[in-house]
Amino acid sequence: MKQPVAEMQGLCTLNFAAVKSMMAVTSIDCVAPFAEYLANVMCCPQLETTLVILIGQSSKHSNMLALNGSLAKHCLSDFQQLLVSQGANDTLQQICSLHPENLTEGSCPVKDVHEFESTVDSSSLLDTCGKIDLVNECCEETCENSITEAAKKLALKAYDISRMDDPHVLSDHTTRVNDCKRIVHRWLASKLEPAGAKHVLRGLSNCKNNKVCPLVFPIMKNITKACGDGMNNQTRCCNTVERYVSHLQRQSFVTNLQALDCAASLGLKLQNDNVSKNVYNLCHISLKDFSVQVTPEVSGCLLSSLPSDAILDKTLGIGFVCDLNDNIPAPWPSMSQLPASSCKKSVRIPALPAVASGQISKNIYLYICGFYLLKVRVLKD
Questions:
Q1: What is the spatial distance between Cα 13 and Cα 26, in angstroms, rounded to a whole number?
Q2: What is the pLDDT of residues 159-173, one digit of tens each?
Q3: Which residues form the At1g61900-like C-terminal domain (predicted)?
């Protein structure tokens, strides 16, 4: 699994030893053959979290929550080389849209630890975000709101308050606040142990990711033609739907909540294109049909809405856990319905959709033994 690594120049001042165990996990989450398929749920959130914690931990000695441009370039290069040496994909910067600028302060006017702590209510921020309940945080956004408020205070240091009504300043302010959020994340990572920081940061990332369908929907004119109003051939319609869905299945593993959002989003798009018939029901489309298919026996693999990591088994290889409830029908939305909210009190989130009557809930471990060879171990609850 190990690949040759270009010689590191030794110009990066970050303390990689402080996140050694996290980098090992990252290399497994971003394992070469499957990094792209695990990118939105597992690989990129873990990669970005590791970088935040790396800079945060290093700030204990440097008192800086950001790197300058030159140093950021050297450190990002070394970071990727170290991961590749442990089996990670060598195109992670492209897969995760990661650039040296992501390690700098960007447009945020504060990067010094002392200035940070004199600007924001750091004690309150740590109380709110030092430990979070992922179920409540995803709905109430208590920690996320505290981070946003702290970022706004940092961003304001760049302006003359009397000019805050200027439209250009307001537009610029939004970008600045987002850049300052990175600074807040790094400060939190400096105050928490790496494991605690990972729990918080990966949790916040999953809250955000689970609200959006990560799939790209190709043009659906063939479905419109085969399944639109006046449809007279159900077999032709379903064959067309299945071919379309097969393209979605080549994109990414998705979480159970993302699958719900994808089903709702696609359904609304089809209805807007005059497909009024419930083609999900007609063609037996399930939630798992929106995720990467792993083997004919297991079919679609839905990842948990909670943060998860791949595992390394010395005998079986790289593996990850899927939550799988067989054949849960994809919900067909009404024209006026937005994708279902995961924060309704009747829904236990993060959770799987309710199992259909008489079915057994399953977890499966998928083990990557070769380039695309998978072994499957099914665990029944």
A1: 20
A2: 866 555 555 555 678
A3: 211-284
